[in-house]
Amino acid sequence: MSDDILRLVGVTQQYGEGETSVSALSGVDLAVARGELVAIMGASGSGKSTLLSIAGGLQTPTSGEVVVEGRFLSTASARDLAQLRRRSLGFVFQDFNLIPTLTALENVMLPLELDGFRARAARRAAQEALASVGLEAKDASYPDDLSGGQQQRVAIARAVVGGRRLILADEPTGALDSITGEAVMRMLRTRIDQGAGGILVTHEARHAAWADRIVFLRDGRIVDESRRTDADELLSGTR
Amino acid sequence: MSVRLSLLAILDQGPCYGYQLRAEFDRRTGSTWPLNVGQIYNTLDRLERDGLVEKGAIDEQGHVYWQITDAGRAEVAAWLRAPVERSSGTRDELAIKLAVAATLPGVDVAEVIQAQRRASVAQLQSLNRAKYAGNGPDGPEELAWSLVVDSMIFAAEAEVRWLDHTEQRLAQHPQHAMALALSTEKPKRGRPAKTEARA
Amino acid sequence: MTPATETAETDGRRRRREAAAPGSTRVRRRGGARDTAPATSRAARWRVTLRLAQRQVRRGRASSILIVLLVALPIAGMTGGAVYVDSLIATPEERVSAELGGMQAWVAPVGVPGAGLWQDPTSPWNSGYQVDTGGSTAPEGAVRTDLDGVLPAGTEVIPVTEGQARIETATGAAVVPAWGGEIWNDGFADAFALVDGRAPRGDGEVIVTAPTLERTGAAVGGTLTESPDGRAYEIVGVFTASRLSSEASAVAFPDATRFESLRWYLPDLRLSWPDVQELNTAGMVAFSRDVVLDPPPARADGSPIVDERTSSMWQLVVALAVGGAFAAYMVIMLAGAAFAVSARRQQRALAIAASVGADARDLRRTILLQGSVLGGAGGVVGVGAGIGLAAAVIALTDDGSATGFWGFHVPWPVLAGILVFALAVGTVSALVPARTVAKSDVIGALRGARRPQGVRASRPLWGSVMIIAGVGLTVVSGVAAASVSASQDLTWDSPLRWLPIVGIIAGPVIAQLGVVLSGRWLLWLASLGLSRRDWPRGMPSPTGRARCRRSPRSVPPCSSASSPSRSAV
Predict the structure, then answer these.
(1) Do C348 and A158 touch (CB under 8 A)?
(2) How far apart, in Å, are the Cα atoms of C150 and each of A161, C239, C268, C277, C476?
(3) I need a surface site. Which of A228, C273, C397, C466 has the fewest CB within 10 A?
């Protein structure tokens, strides 16, 4: 359990009150360990994106606990949550991940600089992160000059820069063609294998297949789960 | 059909003998469709009967080389040009199962769908892992294999997508069950008047 | 698993590279940066928000240019005014040059010797007697007309008298300034200069200014006729006088005793302040180069000398402050509206920053710094334009004399203050949008707001208070003003005469500020009321706009809505 980067316990999210209330999530329990990628699949309206927002502290659940690296989010102030987003977790969205007026390098440096890193240290860490996604040559390019796949890779670099341990990805391949999407998924998987934990929300089953565990949501509840079998465990071997 | 014409296409590159033909086919399909020599020779005999190949020279080791004829070349060209026709009518087990299940009162179709979905997703996970156990394909052999695996991956995903779609349609039409109808009409003979669903 | 899958998997295993790149599967701590907490600095946060502000400003080009212009206009006006006014004020060097040219001093008999005459050290026209006798009776005695014994023996003096001459011109007669004395002496430098011809040698010769030639229709060598007595003089030269405009006619006669107003110019003798005071006891006042350039700290009677230039500049600063306050109010309203719109357009970028860990403080700072950047840019543009504008106006209105526009004076300290003011105005304009952005649901904008957004604008406290206070003040002041004008028995300088006026001006201003502060709530109120009405078909319903604005993503530019409703003051 202490190996868990993220834990959701009894998370419920309700909108509205009384008769007109809508339950986006009901009593969701989820745990993500280091080096584990969990995919969340479900129809639209099943609560996938809400789950991700709650996991990342973007939204406060109506009830239930969210624990990120041992830290209870319910007791965190807005400033603590912002610090969490700088240090512990990183988001990758379907699009509009990068600030268009900053270069790729500056985008990746952003969480570090907001945290108070000096310019040189931030720059170095950002360049390493960009190199790990193969884009060190594009560090001075603006997002408008990058392809969709390159933008997503920069977003992944930003999500992990500075040793962040939890990646939350909401349809990261949604706007990409299948080859580029594959490359992005491969990159994500590499980062996970290096010790990060991740939640991937997607409706494309072949991308969800990269995950160690696939969780099915329906009407705000987890109804099923698909794991790697033990046989697979034995065979993979490189873990 | 594809096996027959694939062998013909290989012979289009140059004369081959039986085992060589099998090795070539294996290599070019990523060993996803194992054939034994007997099948090869049967196919070659039929091709010869249709005038698409002919026996050629025999080397020192006694291998009989088969070579393609002009008619054979034309056949290969036509095969490559024309799209693969999917078989008409659906004999897809899953579709039939779901259609029937949806009409049976008292059946939780969602559970049926979820069970299938889970299985497909598990299969996807395995396929995915198999494909990416190493790094990307290096040479043409690897590429051929990964093309075939890709087709399985996409097919599995297509199935999952169709399951999602079906689930949504059933949700939109909750009145999908029908009780057994006792009909006073005598069942008609012969094929149903509706045409079979074309793929 | 289906057979096909099984086969694929077997082959996959077969193909699996055991020696996958060794580094990629090891758990690697990134960069070591996290293990040893690096030195963090607050400067880094400011730097990144400043960078973001600068880039955002560049991106929203049209709106940025608009705000820069909004700020630059009043700044140009203020700067132009400052330069213009400052150029009307003489520096001591310029005064000395206009009065003395190259001379060291002039001395003039003004009062009765030994009667306690005093003078202002830098302004000898300001003089008087130390009042022992009550009232304004002049002491008895005669004013001297000579310099015997007053100055050291052998001191060279050039007597010059000033008056007026009546001359015949081409169109009739005219009265022109005239001098008597050797004004063509080299020592006068630019104060008086002979530019053509020669100096007069006898009483029948005169020199004139160039415009005089045109006016009388004569030329050098021609005749100047006095009117009405018809006495004729020969024009032997042309001179210029720095205190005359370039269009003025004037005549100079060689005879220093011709006119009444006498001055002795001293080419060599320097007078210190004690020397001048000694001259005062002899009934003389003096304008001394040394004293004007380096004035004593206090006058003879102990009152401190305030540099005329400094006191004029302070008046200018006060005027600028008042004008600036009004200008600032307008600019802040208008630029604030522009900022509100631009802040809304930036919401996506801000949401991305928030998702990466920028907190409300950082977001607010980003918008505020945009205000500072644009305010500063507007200030620079405005100051430059103002200087140019003033230069143009001065060039057009300069009459050529050295005593109109004493020079092209650019009061850099005042301009620096104006620049700081521009920066402040820019920052303040961005204040309300910055706070609104920080409070709004920034993350919701990023997620596309897939859940229903409710607007519940809290009733603003300060805004309501200010609206009520402003309206109340206006009403009370109006009533007071009416009753004051109707009443007869208020003293002339009673404050009640001007207080109501101030109230009538200040009231609407306060009310308007209140409207800006409570904008969202008012809009929500309005949308509630209006949504219940049936609007005639074809008319665009204001609720449509109100409904669009209900999403907290939009920051209604309330100030632009309220400005036109301002009462004409």
Answers:
(1) no
(2) 90, 32, 16, 12, 69
(3) C397
Please tell me whether residue B42 adopts helix, strand or coil conformation: helix
Q: Output the CA torsion A37→A43→A45→A50 (10° steps).
A: 0
Any idea where the domains of chain C sit in the sequence? 95-131+142-153+268-302, 161-264
Whole-model pTM? 0.71
Task: Tell me: pLDDT of B199 over 50.
Answer: no
Segments of B12-144 assigned E as strands: 53-58, 64-68
Q: Is residue A122 part of a domain?
A: no
pLDDT digits (tens, 9 = 90+) for C400-448: 777 778 888 888 998 999 999 999 999 999 998 888 887 777 666 666 5
Closest approach of chain C CAs to the CA of B68, in angstroms?
31
Interface with chain C: mutation pick from A22, A58, A151, A201, highest number of C CBs within 10 Å = A58
Q: Tell me the per-residue pLDDT of B80-110, one tens digit each, with 9 for 90 and over.
A: 888 777 776 666 788 888 888 888 877 888 8
**What is the DSSP code (8-state) at residue C126?**
E
Q: What domain range includes position A2?
A: 1-80+202-239
Please count the other Cβ atoms lying within 10 Å of the Cβ belonging to residue C272.
13
Residue C537 has pLDDT above 70, yes or no: no
- Which chains, if any, share at least 3 CB pairs under 8 A with chain B? A, C
**Two tokens, residue C35:** 């293990």
Q: How far is A30 from chain C (nearest CA, A)?
A: 22
Nearest to A236 among B117, B122, B129 (CB): B129
Read out DSSP for A179-193?
Answer: HHHHHHHHHHHHHHH
Q: Provide, as residue numbers in chain B, all residues whose Cβ is less than 8 Å from the Cβ of C19.
A: none
Contacts of A167 in chain C (CB under 8 A): none
Minimum-distance CB partner of B121 among A186, A214, A232: A214
Residues of chain B with C-beta less than 8 angstroms from the C-beta of A211:
125
Q: How many C-beta neighbours within 10 Å does residue C441 have?
A: 16
Q: Tokens at residue A196, please?
A: 């990060």
The CATH number of the structural domain formed by B2-81 is 1.10.10.10
Own/partner long-range contacts of C345-349 (Cβ < 8 Å, ≥24 apart): C345/C60, C345/C63, C346/C56, C346/C60, C347/C437, C347/C440, C347/C442, C347/C445, C347/C553, C348/A96, C348/C445, C348/C446, C349/A99, C349/A100, C349/A101, C349/C52, C349/C56
Residue A196 located in a structural domain: no
Does B151 contact A at CB distance below 8 Å? no
* Residue A117 structure tokens: 């890193």
> Per the CB < 8 Å rule, is B125 touching A223?
no
Q: For position C137, what pLDDT does the model report?
A: 60
Low-confidence residues of chain A, pLDDT below 50? 230-239
Q: Which of A88, A86, A125 is nearest to A105 (CA)?
A: A125
In what helix (H) or strand (E) does residue B116 lie, and over which residues does it extend?
helix B109-131
B168 contact residues in A (CB cutoff 8 A): 43
In a domain, A45, yes or no: yes
8 A C-beta contact, residue A22 and residue A12: no
Here the tokens at position C440 are: 């709004």
Distance from CA of A193 to the nearest CA of C (A): 6
Q: What is the CATH number of the domain that holds A13?
A: 3.40.50.300
Q: Which of C71, C555, C518, C522 is nearest to C340 (CA)?
A: C555
How many Cβ atoms sit within 10 Å of the Cβ of residue A56? 26
Neighbouring chains of A at 3+ CB pairs within 8 Å?
Answer: B, C
- Sorted by where each begins, the domain ranges of chain B are 2-81, 93-172
Residue C72 banded pLDDT, cuts 50, 70, 90: very high
In a mutational test of the B interface, the residue from A206, A213, A239 whose CB has the highest number of chain B CBs within 10 Å is A206
- Contact check, Cβ <8 Å, C11/B148: no
DSSP result, C157-183:
-EEEEEEEEEEEETTEEEEEEEEEE-T
